[in-house]
Amino acid sequence: MNVPTKIAAGILALAPVGALAQECLVDGDPSELEAEAVSRIYECIEAKMAEGYAGNGDPVGAEFRSWHVTSTRPALAGPHGERFLQTFANGIAAEQYLKFADDGFTMPAGSVLAKESFKVKKGNAVPGPLFIMTKLAVGGAPEAGDWLYAALLPNGKEMKIKQSFCAGCHMNWEDQDSLAYPLEEVRLSSQ
Ligand code: HEC
Q: Residue 67 and residue 140: Cα distance in Å, rounded?
């Protein structure tokens, strides 16, 4: 994604010295990185991601980092475009989400899950979209399990998406209220 120079310069001016301009170099095949290496890349890129998602005034983009993190580190999952993913759950969603239950529940209305993402391009980690799911009241979106799907670009602007595209895949997890959950090896349990 090309950020217009004027906006990029504006974001850089707000950043702590060096934090955003800095590159996050990745050695070797991203799918073979050790957990510790992924955590180091995340430490390098997280401030840049957070600034970007918050950069256009979207309330979820500005707040999700104060919610409950649901994994020990970002992990590379196949869906969502070979990106490293890390999901945050808001106060309404956290208790149920962190059980990673596989049936017999419906998330409370007002639950919001926000999933940050980054990708490795030419040996450098770069921010990807923030993917968002919001649970509506019963009947709010019957064809999508009452979930509203949204996404923000790395600069915090709303990304144009199709509900049917997101829901079409997430409905594969219908028994667990459309939730796919982080990879098992990185799940943070609530116990
Ligand atoms: C091809 C299947 C697929 C499509 C299409 C898809 N997702 Fe996902 N989504 C997944 C999988 C698998 C996960 C769990 C992966 C992970 O977090 O490690 C996930 C996780 C999520 C989560 C975290 C909550 C959860 O399910 O545990 C959000 C939020 C999310 N997706 C939003 C979206 C949005 C918004 C779109 C459309 C722009 C979308 N997804 C399209 C497969 C898909």
A: 24
Q: What's the CA-to-centroid distance between 114 and ligand 1, angstroms?
A: 10
| pLDDT tens for each residue of 20-55 | 556 899 988 998 999 999 999 999 999 999 999 999
110 Cβ closer than 6 Å to some ligand 1 atom = no
E-strand ranges in 105-167 read: 112-121, 124-127, 130-135, 147-152
Secondary structure E strands in 78-191: 83-89, 112-121, 124-127, 130-135, 147-152
pTM: 0.90
Helical (H) or strand (E) element with 53: helix 35-54
Would you kindly state where each structural domain of the chain is located, as residue ranges? Answer: 5-186
Task: Residue 189: count other Cβ atoms within 10 Å of its Cβ.
Answer: 8
CA of 9 to the centre of ligand 1 (A): 32
Distance CA 143, CA 120 (A): 34
User: How far is CA 26 from its chain centroid?
Assistant: 20
Burial 54-68 (b: 16+ CB within 10 A, else e): bbeebebbeebeebb
The protein residue with its alpha carbon nearest to ligand 1, atom 40, reads: 166
> Is domain 5-186 classified as CATH 3.40.50?
no
